[in-house]
Every structure is written in C-alpha cells, then in structure tokens.
Amino acid sequence: MESNRRSFLKIGGICALGLGALPVTKALARKAVPQVSEFPEALKANQWAMVVDMKKCWEKAEEDCKDCILACHQYHNVPDIGTLKEEIKWIWQESYHDTFHDQATQFNIENIEHNPIMVLCNHCTSPPCVRVCPTKATFKDKKSGIVKMDYHRCIGCRFCMAGCPYGARSFNFRDPIPYIKTELNMEYPARERGVVEKCSFCTERLARGLFPACVEACRHGALTFGDITDPNSSVRKVLAENYSIKRKPELGTGPNVYYII
Amino acid sequence: MKIYNAKLIIPGLLIFVVMATFPIWYNKGTAAPPPEPKLNTPAIQRMAEKQCVLPKDQMRTEHMQLLNEWRTEVVRNGNRLYVAWDGKEYNMSLQNECMRCHSNKSEFCDTCHVYAGLKSGSQPYCWTCHIAPKENK
Questions:
Q1: How far is B36 from chain A (nearest CA, A)?
Q2: pLDDT at residue B136 in the model
Q3: B85 has pLDDT over 90
Q4: Span B108-117, mean pLDDT?
Q5: How many domains are contained in chain A?
Q6: Which pLDDT score, from 0 to 100, does residue A170 have?
Q7: Between A and B, how many residue pairs show a Cβ–Cβ distance under 8 A?
Q8: Which residues of B touch A139 (CB under 8 A)?
Q9: Nearest residue of B to residue A203, measured between CA atoms
Q10: Quick check: is A250 in a domain?
Q11: Has residue A9 been placed in a domain?
C-alpha cells in the first residue's frame, strides 16, 4: 500500500477512536463494587469533648461511687493487673494536686485537695502522643477529633507514654486477658502483651449512635459529652454557664476535657 | 560395556536411591487429610441463602485481604458499614460479624490454619486480642 498523507490520517483517526473507547468500555465493564460507609445512626462531631463536673460528682455521688470507671473498664475489657506499675487505666481517679498542680494555691477551699478527680485521655487538639508515634499507630481522627489507637500497628515503644503529659496511656507489660476480672464483653476485643492502650471516647459506641459508656453510667449527670465546635451543643451550654479549667493548658496540647471544680 | 568397580558402584547407587527417596516412602499414607471447614453453625443453618460476604472461592483465597481492608476502613476511616456486591449489608467486624455466623472457630478457622501450619501456634494472631465466641463442648 502506498503511504500517503490521506491513508496516514485515516489510520491515525481510527487509532485515536480506539483509545477514546477504552474508558467507555472500562466504565461499562465495571460491576457493582462493594461500598463502605458509616452507620446511618452514627453520631458526628468535628471535635468531641467532655465536661467533668466534679462539683456534682463530689456533692451527689456516694463516697465510693466508681460507676464510670466500672462501666468503661467492663465495656472495654480493661484488665486489673493489681500492681501500680502495671496498672491499665482508661478513666481513673487522681488527686487534685496531681491533676491541677499548676492551679494549686497555698490556701484552697477546704478539703478540695483531698477530693479525687476523674481523669481520662484529653483527646488533645494537638496531641503530643501522635507526634511522637513512629508507626502512626496512634492518630488524630480528622472526622471526629478523637485521638485513636490502631492496636494492630502499635509496636510497644512507649514513646506516646513519654509524650503524654497526662499519663493517660497504659502499657501491657503482660498478656492482659487472664487479668480481665469483669465479665468479658464479647463485642469488644482485648489487647495483647506489648501494646499501649487508652480511652477511645467510645468510638465504637458513637458509630452506633450511643454516648460513651462512662457518660451513660454516671447517675448524677457529672459527665457531659458533645461537640465543642457546635455552639448549641450540650458541652458548650455547660461551659457557658460554669467557670471551667483544663489540665495543663500551658503546654499547648489543647485538651478537650474540661473540669468544673 | 564394562563398569569399573561395579561391585562398589551398583550397591552405592542403590543406597543413594533408597536414601534419596526415604522421605517419600517413609511418610506414605501418613499425610494429614485435607481440612473440611464445617458450616453447620445455627446461624448459617438459619440462612435461606448460604452466602458469605464474597463468593466462596474468593473468600477462601482473599479473606485475609478483606479483613485487612475492613480493619483499615473501620480503624482509620471510621467506616463500619459494608454493602456487598449482592447488596447485603455487613458490620465490618471480625468479632461481631464474621464470628456471628462462623461461631465454630475450632471447626472452621482452625482446621485450615492448622493444616497450613500458620505460624504463632498454628493460628493467625487475630486471637491474641480478638475474643472468639464460646463453643459448647
């Protein structure tokens, strides 16, 4: 065949048409692909936050009330190792002085220093634990503002424990499963030896439209939970009516757990 | 044709053949029977159409990839609802969804995993944290 401009253009045109048909055939050939999404009932917030009203806790609750701790630790299969060094805790009691040592004045309201304070992970706005994690096992969830853990990925280096100024992280020095003394929650996993664990603001409950276990367990309404970025949320209403403090605000971590003392 | 030192070479060859094939004939008949994962749990028997998340062949070869993808979606992206190719909805959870039907870990998961000799005590390390359903035995 004699090659001339006319036949060259013809062949070129056919080739261009063929290339153009490729995406069309691909689109037609695609089958129904599995889709993933959140549950429709999931609770959403830009930044979840909690207000701990210690006034209510001290005044209304009985001396030995530990409903929030028990509910949380039972729900999340938190073990009770029994020693202070290997203690695993998601929400626990801390002394006033250790919680607010920057607030301590010499002459406080009587007895305030002897009252315990409920503390948990602050789900900081700029969390130091996330910054130091070498494997990105702990991360700040952009959708909800929760500081989450991917236990699959944790290598147990404990940098995050050194990084957290609130002591909110616990390390599993041994296999925790034999030490789970509460009834096992079959819907939630346990952890294994060599991973760090902490409060998750009940991510898995929020995904199902439920508030955190501790908030639900408190009979005196001392724990308020909501979206701190929403001016009409329950937490913002409580904060607008009461003077509140945060733990170690001078560190710039931006804690999202507020205290009414 | 003449073989030099045939007295030594032929018995030597015989000994070599016997020793080289020793593993084959020594282990004959002792091979473990191929695993038969059981699907006779109450949840599966109640199903009208016995269908897993993916077609059976795909589940058999790709369940670990699926579990990995589910893990990433749930933990990292917060997506917990999976709409399968046939339109059925699943909660992307090993403990709450896979084991809801396959509540017989020792007769389902373990049969193949032990047969294939997976490391860590012949089980994948899912179960160091995830809690397997209680089996009545």
A1: 27
A2: 65
A3: no
A4: 85
A5: 1
A6: 96
A7: 62
A8: 76
A9: B78
A10: yes
A11: no
E strand or H helix that includes residue A259: strand A257-260
Residues in chain A: 261
- Does the ipTM surpass 0.85? no
Residue of A nearest to B85 (CA): A34
Q: Give per-residue pLDDT as tens, A46-88.
A: 999 999 999 999 998 888 899 999 999 999 999 999 999 999 9
CB contact under 8 A, B95 and A33: no
Cα separation, A141 vs B102, whole angstroms: 32
Residue A137, domain CATH? 3.30.70.20
Q: With bands split at pLDDT 50, 70 and 90, how would you rate the model's confidence at A1?
A: low
State which residues form the domain around A254: 48-260
Q: In chain B, which residues have their Cβ closer than 8 Å to the Cβ of A154? A: none
Tell me the chain A residues in contact with residue B79 when contact means C-beta distances shorter than 8 Å.
Answer: 36-38
One-letter identity of residue A234: S
Question: How much is the pTM?
Answer: 0.82
| Cβ atoms within 10 Å, residue A128 | 18
Nearest to B81 among A36, A144, A190 (CB): A36
Distance CA A119, CA A131 (A): 22
| Range in A39-53, A135-149, B28-42, B98-112 with the lowest mean pLDDT | B28-42
Distance CA B52, CA B84 (A): 9
Name the band, by pLDDT with cuts 50, 70 and 90, for residue B35.
confident
| Residues of A whose CB is below 8 A from B71 | 152
- Write the CA distances from A198 to A43, A94, A169, A195, integer angstroms: 21, 16, 5, 10
Torsion of CA B44, B49, B54, B58, to 10 degrees: 90
pLDDT at A25 over 90: no
Set of chain B residues whose Cβ sits within 8 Å of the Cβ of A38? 78-81
* Any domain includes A10: no
pLDDT at A124: 97
Is A19 part of any domain? no
Chain B residues interacting with chain A (CB cutoff of 8 angstroms): 71, 73, 75-85, 87, 92, 95-96, 125, 128-131, 133
